[in-house]
Amino acid sequence: MQTGNRSRQAGEPQAVMQNVRITVQYDGTDYHGWQMQRDLRTIQGELTRVISLLDRREVTVHGAGRTDAGVHAEGQVASFQFERRFAPMELRDAINGNLDRDIRVLDVEFIDESFHARLSARRKTYRYRIWTADVVSPFVRRYVCHHRGQLNTDEMIRAAQALIGQHDFTAFTVSSSEVRSHVRNIETIHIERESNGLAIVVIADGFLRYMVRTIAGALIDIGRGHREAVEMAAILESRDRRRAGPCAPAAGLTLMRVDY
CB of 49 within 8 A of CB of 36? Predict the structure, then answer.
């Protein structure tokens, strides 16, 4: 891969940098999360490798959210500056042609310079799927958390109401989190029944690391009868990560969409 500014041939037109927005789907099972890490396979790392190869220079790819290792996406959004001349669908096909099949770019859009995948995002939707049947289908095993046995969804719904609104979610993130504020606004939490289990859908203006998985873990404990629904408010107010209990496995979590 060539990096840096390449020399131009005589008469070659001056390149115009374009701001590009892409929508990406991926199966995160075999990746160490979104964020680029040295010597580890990540979503951002693979996109950066391919897009830099196509543009013949180092390109910085910004994602709307940093999904963790093993977490999936149906509607991740990324943006970057691109110099070479491609039609949108040509660029989409060129990127996909150089990626493994567990990452796909769905669409490409040349967009206003002010757009930034992370900074322009207004809300995100995550879905956490729990499979409660005795046997997990091999067709979904990479995308669900298996909890054998029924869960009390009514109690889970009651507990989830305490989290709606603007709160400090310190109890639901890692203690080493370096973000400036742990305050986030959850617009809604749905508990949706499915044929072989249920799904927890969370919509918020932003999320902390492990936040949805920790919420899911606490709700599963309540659904199993290991905690009372009324405890959720006390966990939130405590701002104590230990009170929330273990986070649920990464496999069940998918970033569904990002709104701007």
Answer: no
